[in-house]
Amino acid sequence: MFNYAIEMGSSNTVIYRVGYGVVLNEPTLIAVEHIGDKNVIKGVGFKAKKLMGKTNSKVEVIAPIFEDVIENQTYAKLLLKEFLNKVSSKGLFNKVKAIFCVPCGLTLKERTKYKHLAYSLNISYAETLPSAICALTGMDVDVYDTTSYMVVNIGGGNTDIAVVSNGNIVKGCTINVGGIGIDNAIISYVRDNFNVIISNQVAEQAKKELSSLHPKDKSHLEIDGVDANTLEHKVINLTAKELVPITVTFYNKVVDSINTILNMCNADVIADISRNGIYFCGGLSKVTALEQFMRIKTKMPIYIDIHPENSVINGAGMLLNDPTKLEKLIKEFM
Predict the structure, then answer these.
(1) Which phi and psi angles does 24 have, rounded to 5°?
(2) Hey, which bits of 166-272 come out as E strands?
(3) Rounded distance, CA 187 to CA 182, Å?
(4) Which of 19, 69, 85, 120 shows the greatest Cβ crowding within 10 Å of its Cβ?
(5) What's the CA gap between 12 and 29, in Å, rounded?
(6) How high is the pLDDT of residue 12?
(7) Mean pLDDT, all residues of the chain
(8) Quick check: is 57 in a domain?
(9) Which residue range is the domain that position 89 belongs to?
(10) Checking DSSP bridges between strand 220-227 and strand 196-197, what pairing results, if any?
(11) 5: phi > 0 → left, psi -120 to 50 → alpha, else beta; which?
(12) Which of 54-68, 236-250, 315-329 has the weakest average pLDDT?
């Protein structure tokens, strides 16, 4: 019986433990000091994030997961080890049986990397399951329903889009469009229009508080940065209205991919989705006016989870507590 569900995203890692619920939700970051041939861990998760931009040349803050793919197996192993030590009996990973929630667009080789990561830590058993299946389960959809459902999971590194019916992914894709891209676009916008340099953390804050698809949104935020020429501290007032073009460009890419997937489906599947609507989850589903924007663009009913950032891990937790259904789903996607 599986007892852990792990979602290692480009931005955050979330861990669910049977009997405890969500036991960890921290940035997928590790800070390492390079001393000769040794790598000394200076912090992981929130602690590593606080060190970004504040370290000497020997300390590096690393994101081992890029666009939901394990890019650096060594640091991913160190990071997951530290996270598991926080939430389980320290070092006794042979009692861990884990499901890794991964995007539907990952290749077999990319999915297998997660299993190799688990076994390198002496985890007794590990499998992968599509995040789309977990997300719909977390939104109280029976994935074995014979009708079809579309789910769009907008995360930090990727957007995962899938049509699910009878326990299978009928059509799906993973596009390299996520919240990190918006952060970078905001950094560029502020530099180009105000001649001010801001940090990734400030850009992320602006994204969370100002990202809007409403052209008349009046929200505003004072942000700190440094003058690009003098390097003096500078405070600027940034408005949601200024960022609307960035936000719209981002979500139009999501719309294009949704339409591409719908165009690959037959008439019966499209009819199902027209009745059931499109289910949105992921942290970037909290953007202002998303429901109206997507309803107009897709001409479909839109359902956004109440806590969209937790849809995947909540669904994975529900499946952990239904081992018969979980085992059946694992066999479907092996």
Answers:
(1) -155, 135
(2) 168-175, 196-197, 220-227, 233-239
(3) 9
(4) 69
(5) 8
(6) 95
(7) 94
(8) no
(9) 4-28+63-133+312-332
(10) antiparallel
(11) beta
(12) 54-68
